[in-house]
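Revision sheet: structure tokens.
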Amino acid sequence: MKEEKNHPSPLQSWLIWSSGGLFFLLGFFHRVAPAVLHRELTVDFSLSASSLGALTSLYYYSYTAMQIPTGLLADLWGPRRLLAFGLISTAISSAFFAISEELFWAGVARFLIGGSVAVAFVTTLKLSSHWLPPKRYAFAAGMLLVAGMTGAVFAGYPLHQATILFGWRNVTLASALLALLMAVLVFMFVRDDPSEKGLKSYLDKESSGQKEEKILKSLGRVFRFSNTWFLTIAPGGIVGAVLTFSGLWGVPFLTEVYHLENAIAATLCSLVMLAWALSGPIYSLVSERIQLRRMPYLIGTMISLISWSLVFLIPGWSLGILSLLLFLAGFFSGGMILGFAQGKETLPLSLSGTVSGVINMGVLTGPMLLQPLVGFLLDSTKPTAQTSLEIAVGFSFEDYRFAFLPVLIWLVLSVLALYLSQESYCKNKIFNETNSG
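Predicted:
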């Protein structure tokens, strides 16, 4: 038959992509929801700043730990089964979190949610390499960031309002039902490769030999390339800054230091996420136009560092200037999406899933470490931990400035790592196994 000679239509390809994109949206919703729910969680589980940071960061521990296995399994077994399993696990874990009455079980549920949604990003990139033309890979990654930031926006003001109307536990249960429905749709409609539907794949069969490689061997090969290390370190500081602020400590900071209402503070945190979302596709399109990955990524990170430094180190900005600085910090953080294309293009294509998993592990290491560290440093400024409803009461701008210093230090390391990284010029390069990059 001659059906396999035709590539899938753009509509077919993007519908397949959307199965993972929607899952990533849901995962990001869970990732940043504690920023809005910090009061409810503090009251229900009697939390201090340190324990709130620890509870929130449990998501990142499991998420980060799952990135390498996810990348390897996406290469070896295919993304469809991983997506479906992740969605079912997300549904169960979310329901568990919603009904938890004790901190221990809430922590277990939070940990399981992180591990469950961890498969979304890498498996969607893997689907993209099969279902979309290579020239659309960076754009697909950028649109995935849009999907994630859309979830973050839903976890801002809309979550705040839904929590007032229905309670945070019922909203979390509703997200569990949504994940279960999405799992059914993945089983019904998603396939790993267009050839399974009688269409022509966009992935060269000869470049997909990863399925025949042993797991430890493929992982060892990935870490022989210096770009793997640089592109894993860099996004930790960038994403760590965004999610440490907008994903947890931004609302307390804005309500305590700038005396904003909770809804306005949540909106400003959503603004950072929205700016981040908008910049992903723009970075991808600009990168394709100028045929560079490293340079726009590096310049954006430097601007982001300057913007966050002004917010964290200098007090008393007007609401307009503060909003502008937060927008710039979020927008120029979007260059991190180019790191996935840069990694894919500077390593063998057979390792595309594995290197994406490793880089994404670096992405989440930042908030995983920084969120609880900021809480610990805040508590260290007081003789006793804060356990009241107003978790940040008593924390001054000087306290926050001290607590946010590790965020700025990591951003400086991100700039250095990108400066040392190798440019791909938007072209796939082939290396020998022994090539260190």
